Fold these 3 entries.
Entry 1:
Amino acid sequence: MSKDISLPLTFKEKAIVFRGGGLGDFILTLPLLYHIPNSYREVILLTKPSYFSLVNKREGLSELLDLDLGLSQISKRIEGADIFTFWDDEEWKNELKNFGANQIFILASRPTEGPHIVKAMFKKTNTPFLPTIFSNAWIGDCWSENSNMWIHPGSGGEYKNMPFSFYKNLAETWLKDKNSNRVTFCFGEADRKIFKTFKEEEFLFSGRIKYVQPSSIEEYKNKLSEGVFEFWGNDSGPGHLAANLGIPTNICFRSTNSSIWRPTGPRVNIHEFQEDSI
């Protein structure tokens, strides 16, 4: 992965990053995570273990730790460190200060207005920003084109979802185009209701449709890396995952703001829908 920003003449000693949140939130933090090491000798990331497989430690991250194990595992290493955190809480900030934190950067976790959340992170932390940051595949450009369209019709919030009929029509149109075309529908833990709808539907060309239910983010990543023509889905973590694997990714924005939450990635197309147009 190429670096956009030149190394400084001097390094600060240590940065500690605390990042929880959903899958999409974490992936949107990767550009900043991979640029912080340009300024620090040591960078420690505390996050969910399920996200470890998305991080390339060769990009300068010194250590990955389980966020759920709490502050005690890192408390003796906070003194003199710059802290990057998405928790805007006075008690939390005071605790960090008591352990000797140097500078504390509080990053907005759920902004409601522009700029794009990635650009806002860079601005808040005084990190030089280039527009090419939006076009990187931050997990690795491993797109392998074949005849399989991948559809993830759910998300973490039902209000984000396009009607299932929209994705059914996409699938059937794709299958009608060529006999060699295939469709994979994917469902996660939050998609039980829409999975039930899928199971009750009758499809044209159903013999060329399959579904998968990956048990982990790493499994999802590996399945996408096997080869996909393009990805379709709502504003959701799987969409950010596909986009940052370099896969041509079509994201439908129904209620969230694409100018803030658009995925990064080299082959991203955004489709805006108004409530009255659905």
Entry 2:
Amino acid sequence: MKIALAADHAGFLLKEKLREHLRSAGHEVTDLGTTSTESTDYPDFAAAVGRQVASGEAERGILVCSSGVGMSIAANKIHGVRAAMGTHTDEVALVRGHNDANVLTLGATFTPEPEAQAMVDVFLSTPFDGGRHARRVGKIMQLESKP
């Protein structure tokens, strides 16, 4: 699967670990930064990943910041993105199955590497359930076209 990956300075170290995890699992990873722990602005990275996912350049996106919340808020401003913050594998399975989330955000401060890897694996392997959930996702998408 083609994955767009990015983090701000607070998520840099976890992003680096996730990039290697993804590549070792056979995914094609586009790392959109950051490249160090030097202070950066998370909206820039959320926008870069969101745009790749929305355009179809990437099938899914993964973002890491300190809490996961800022990246989620910023990524959801991109038309076509359904970003969800992951805190547990069961929750991640639901946001994929029920909400067709296409971007996962993680909080590096609160998420140990093994848990982050497990959530990423669930995010990438869980299909969208469709059915009644497709109707609801359609309504979410309609919200983007109204001020």
Entry 3:
Amino acid sequence: MVDCRVAGKPLEHILGWTEFCGLKIAVEAGVFVPRRRTEFLVRQALDQAGGRPGEVVVDLCCGSGAVAAALLAALPDAEVHAADLEPAAVRCARRNVSAGGGFVHEGDLFAALPGALRGRVDLLVVNAPYVPTDAIGLMPPEAREHEPRLALDGGTDGLDVLRRVVVGAPSWLAPGGRLLFETSAQQAPSLVDAAARTGLIARIAVSDELAATVVVAVPLAGDPPTSDRQ
């Protein structure tokens, strides 16, 4: 184990788990390691949750399923779904989410979800890749050499996947449903504009403590999203 760490392998992959929102999350080699800043995304999602039985929660680009597992732990009466394109991530997510009663799907963004969820999602939470392609070489070697590029590379400006999410989200959200996604402070204004073009009104929430930025959006017909700087 020491030799693996000296060689640069992420500690989480060596141990096979990491801590996230107070939970022990299984993480396999080759799977994106959940970051502490993403706990802010979970907190924002819980702020937007209605807390009613049967509330439908979806974690897209779920990776290990850490966000879905944290939301399921906090909202035990919710119907929680998680989805990812990477088979290794889906395998990990099933260990972390299915055991708690959640559902895990394999596929590309919304195509992975059961059609019965269309128009019924109350909370759509997304931690998609948003690193610009040219910036991946500047990331720590633990990330660029040991995590799947698919989980990091957001395209030329980092927003390729998130734009697809914003365009597809309105048809999956329930009336008054919320879309929340992590991004960077520099990218957030562009995504707020993109949301407006698809009929979503969005606000930016920032955590100085975690250096985290989250966009919270809701269809124009719904109540404005409640989020602020923390």
